[in-house]
Amino acid sequence: MSHLIDLSPFRQSPAFARMWIGSTLSGIGGQLTIVTVMLHVFALTQSTFAVSMIAVAGLVPMILAGLYGGMLADAFDRRRVALIAAVITFAATALLATLTWAHAETIWWLYALSMIIAAANSVGMATRTAIIPRLLSRDMLAPASALNGVAFGMTVMAGPALAGLLVALTGYGWTYTIDVILMLSMFLGLWTLPKLLPEGEIVRPGLASLVDGLRFLRRAGNIRMQYVLDICAMTFGQPLALFPALGTVILGGGAVTTGLLTAAVAVGTFLSSLFSGRIVHYRWHGRGIARAVQAYGATIALFGIVLLVGALLPAGHATASSPNVLLIALACVALAFSGAADNVSSIYRNTMMQAAVPDTMRGRLQGVFIIVVAGGPRLGALYAGVLASLTALWFPPLLGGLLVIGLVALFVRLSPRFRAYDAEDPQP
């Protein structure tokens, strides 16, 4: 068995391959727009607070759209739902480009269109994830999750870097326009799909559908447990909010260091997917999730130790113009391993969601998962920011990593059914 990524899903399902290519190219374009909007807002306002409010403004629409989009995906043809979401994203991005070319953009237009794009992307994400198990056999779901990890790693690595380069060389209008062009690939992937009505009893979108999904989740102990472990990891082990300060205070290097630290996580995600050949064939997914999340906690604690070493060095050892290259390299290695561990956990979590959840529930459960994915890092930013302001920059990741290890051990010990989860007999 090879250590390299398993490409069998592409061979088994050309429809999955087309959708993967479309999602990857449009994902790079989406990252272009996210970063370009941030740069655009700062250029218009010269306010970092205004930039931070883009994420805050988009959070509620993203959560609500994810929940409702999940209900739509469980009630209607998923191909059509995904196409409509893609059309809305395409139209909003095209309007963004048009306003920019016409020099008619305002801060409120940028906020409003960013919110629409975030909401439409939530619906599209929940729907496309629910589509995958209909295109592949069950034994191909884990390799497909690893392939999606490669796609995510490429989009996060390439998108932000290209955005900065394109804005500097061509301006905002051309950068938005390139995203519009890349978005066309998403339509190719979705348009060629067959009609995909949910299998099983269909509940019309609304309160009854939401209650039905939550009632199922209450019975689905394994799915609930993976949500809990992910929230633990993202709440106590997400140091992203500290990165800007680290480039000034401990590691030096300014904005360049911030970019390197952010990219290191994506590099770890990409490489772990690239060498996931053996990982995807491990059948005990509950144990795999627990061990991967604990490994994530250990790498975040190691990142905290690197920062502690930097804090103990004499004052002024690193500045924006004189970085501590060795410490930056060590910090990037720790963060790369954290990205790898998180991706391994994601492979098993996504496979469990797709294999153990009935087809008629997959959209709604993916909608709930969007809340977990969107809310966890924001709780993590609050934890890291508040604790760092009260103590020191190195303390939140060191304490948080240790908390992740301990909490996962406790929760998994209390859930023998989760420890015994077998991919050969998936049970929610």
From TrEMBL:
GO cellular component terms, semicolon-separated: plasma membrane
An example Gene Ontology molecular-function term: transmembrane transporter activity
Transmembrane segments: 20-43, 49-69, 81-102, 108-126, 146-168, 174-193, 259-280, 292-313, 325-344, 365-386, 392-412
Compartments, as annotated in UniProt: Cell inner membrane
Pfam families: MFS_3
Domain Major facilitator superfamily (MFS) profile intervals: 1-418
InterPro entries documented for this protein: MFS_dom, MFS_trans_sf, TM_effector
Membrane disposition: Multi-pass membrane protein
Record keywords, A-Z: Cell membrane, Membrane, Transmembrane, Transmembrane helix, Transport
Cross-referenced PANTHER family: ENTEROBACTIN EXPORTER ENTS, INTEGRAL MEMBRANE EFFLUX PROTEIN-RELATED
Protein name: Enterobactin exporter EntS
UniProt organism field: Microbacterium azadirachtae
